[in-house]
Amino acid sequence: MKTWLITGASSGLGLIMARKLLARGDRVVGCGRRVAPFEALQQMAGDRLRIASFDLTDTEALRREVDAAFSAFGRIDTVVSNAGYGLFGAAEELSDAQIERQIATNLTASIQLVRAVLPHLRAQGGGRIMQVSSEGGQVAYPNFSLYHATKWGIEGFLEAVAQEVAPFAIDVVIAEPGPTATGFGGALDHASPLAAYDMTPAGEVRRAIASGAFEIKGDAERTVDAMIQVADSKQPRLRIALGSTAFENIHRALAARQDDLLAQKALTLSGDRT
User: Fold this and answer.
1) Catalytic residue (choose from 81, 110, 141, 147)
2) Does the pLDDT at position 16 exceed 90?
3) Is 10 assigned a catalytic role?
4) What integer pLDDT is reported at residue 110 of this predicted model?
5) Is 85 one of the annotated active-site residues of the chain?
6) Catalytic residue status for 95
7) What's the pLDDT score for residue 126?
8) Which of 81, 110, 133, 134 is catalytic?
9) 57-66, 73-82, 186-195: lowest mean pLDDT where?
10) pLDDT class for 264, splitting at 50, 70, 90?
11) What is the DSSP letter of 30?
């Protein structure tokens, strides 16, 4: 029996993961602002499910609940940082409040979660952190600039942290699902559109999402199965792309970056001291 702490566990991939883990006999600390989605799971799991209801952007509450979870269960094997949402709109269209909330939820809260659990993971002799990022941590779409800023940011943060904590037997995994049927699109925070962007790539993406033409290939249940499989493995890789869309888009983006780097090799090396 393993013990997991999952943020954003009251909906989407987090709720599916909590259900699957409890069904196989594991223990789960489910973190979310809403308690109602946990009620059926509580009836099934009893004291194997601990519910922590708080706003993840409240750092003091986050630290308090993390401390209480480790105290209650003694050991937590895997921490899954899953909470987040999408902010949709061209950069110019976004309000200051929308930008601040996106960064606070997707980036700052994820950073503070990692900082809160690390002392406990070190004290218990190791553990695993799984960050649910997105293909959007490696590629970018018009109208998702701030979402991408948070995902690229958390991936850079965790790539550094992974090196810092490896000596303590703490592993880091960054999961990068492509577009997946989770209700993510329906929960987007939309900016007020500007007519100036109607006939631009931003406008094209807006129309594609509104019309349902934006293809979603990812299956939520299978995506979670893959994430659990990786979290259970002995030596997981740092990053795992999930779904064919993620694989194709990330592969294309990385190849293009490598081509750009190689094409500029002479200019790049000219910056060295002679």
Assistant:
1) 147
2) yes
3) yes
4) 97
5) no
6) no
7) 97
8) 133
9) 186-195
10) very high
11) E
